[in-house]
Design a protein that fits this description.
heterodimer, A: alpha/beta, Rossmann fold, B: about 350 residues, four-stranded antiparallel beta sheet, 11 helices, about 30% helix, globular
Amino acid sequence: MADEPILQVKGLSKSFGNVRAVKDISFSLRQGEIFSLVGESGSGKTTAARCIIRIYRPDEGSILFQGKDISGSLSRAGQLELAKNMQMIFQDPLSSLNPKKTVFDIIASGLDVHRLYGSKKERAEKVHAMMEEVGLSPELSGRRPIQFSGGQRQRIAIARALIIRPSLIIADEPLSSLDVSIQSQIVNLLLSLREKYGITLLFIGHDLRMVRFLSDRIAVMQEGEIVECGKAEDLFSRPSHPYTQSLLGSILSPVPNG
Amino acid sequence: MKDKNALEIHDLEISFETSRGTAQIIRRVSLEAERGKTLAIVGESGSGKSVTVKSIMALLPDQARIEGGEIWLQGRPGEEEPINLTSLSKEQVMKTVNGRRISMVFQDPLSVLNPTMKVGKQIMEGMLLHGDLNRKEAKERAIHLLDDVGIRDSRLCMDQYPHQLSGGMRQRAAIAIALSGGADILILDEPTTALDVTVQKKILDLLQRLQKEHSLTAILITHDLGVVAKMADTVSVMYAGQIVESGTSRDIFFHPAHPYTWGLLSSIPDSGTKHLLSIPGNPPDLSRPIKGDAFAPRNAYALKEDFASEPPLIPLSGTHSVKSRLYQDGKRPDLPKELKEKIERIQKEASHGR
């Protein structure tokens, strides 16, 4: 069933007190697709992502992941299985990596939780292979997160998420804390991992040039609603909603005036 | 110093005491900011761009030391002589220069706004401190400034606290405070990085209007080349505490010369990008001594000598200079093909409106 979406969000709403952060949004992701949510701060994109990965419990709507509704309560086994298949990468890798653990143990944590190794040797081999895959030297595995640069830390976070071979990765502004030259390294890494493993990526970003380059499809959010959704190229060449138009009109071109 | 310049930095050297010894953070930086124009300093985190501008206003932290060089501030037209700011004490700079001649706008307006004080009082504070105006005059001027930075209900804003304003309005209020002491040089440290794109555009438009109306000189620090292209007249590119390329905005965007600048421009995706080029590796750790050219380990175009000694700064034209051996002996290498095509594509895109 290749056409069956891997993730289907239907009528999702979430409020915090009087603030309706997400209002009745629906979208779906196909296997192997890179789908981006864009919008300004407060538009609800992070809240939507956090509902999907069960950090928040939605008020209304359903979230079907690989055909199963994951929006309600799940058994312990169900939660574990979900964690095995859906992983998240955050904006600031330093705050999402345990500062007391070595990089080896951080990356191995998924293997430990899901018991994905037969021997200590196999565990070590998997971690080292994963580090090489994301462009980190395995020699550095004994160090702690603080000893790495921002870009390297984001690689660690990606390795930790990827080592258990999830089918969906949610990346919430993973480039925002990185320098320009490092951002493109991470984007290229994400693209090569998609190529190799067919991972599906739900990407949240605000750099619209980068989002256009990276995404297959894009949904534009404003005040908790999806105002426009379409193929990246169509959306950029023929934006139809006035808000999308104003958003795209605010992109600064790297061409000097005058 | 040259008459046309508002500020000049000559061979500035700054070191930091760290737990791992002394780090040379700024390594012989020279800059010129022309009066009424915008100089952009572009670089990644750790390149030294913020430290450089903080040294102008004597805002360096205690572990920093100016080891050498001079910072010259032009006298106001028809008034004083130029002053070498490095010859003044920290207190003198704070009292006579900061706010009156040079002001700073920061990335996060909440870091400069006092959360417990009404906006109006914060704008008036500086004016009253300098003692040129009485309370009533200061209040009128504060309201006028809030109007000027595009705050619609300026009288209401006077009585509001910072948390009652949106991010864009806070930055406007911070700009009003920066202008309140009559400064003619504005240092803009990533002024729109924390803002949404539609708000960013409005703030940049505002800064351009204010600059024109008040003949302000701006020194803009940013890593966003889109912001640089919109705002800058001249650009200096920093890497590992040094200026690696300087030129007019057109020099840097249309005829970039340094491989690092090539890398920065190449990592911006455009509509025709198939494969995104990136600069490999990471910036160097400045707490360790640097041998040769700091960029050489990441530079596909590095020559053998670059690993042994620093390349010289080579002038390419009256406005354009580059710190790279590729241009020695009158050599003028071509731009990498992919970048050349990208620049042409982006130019075409821009001339078509987007």
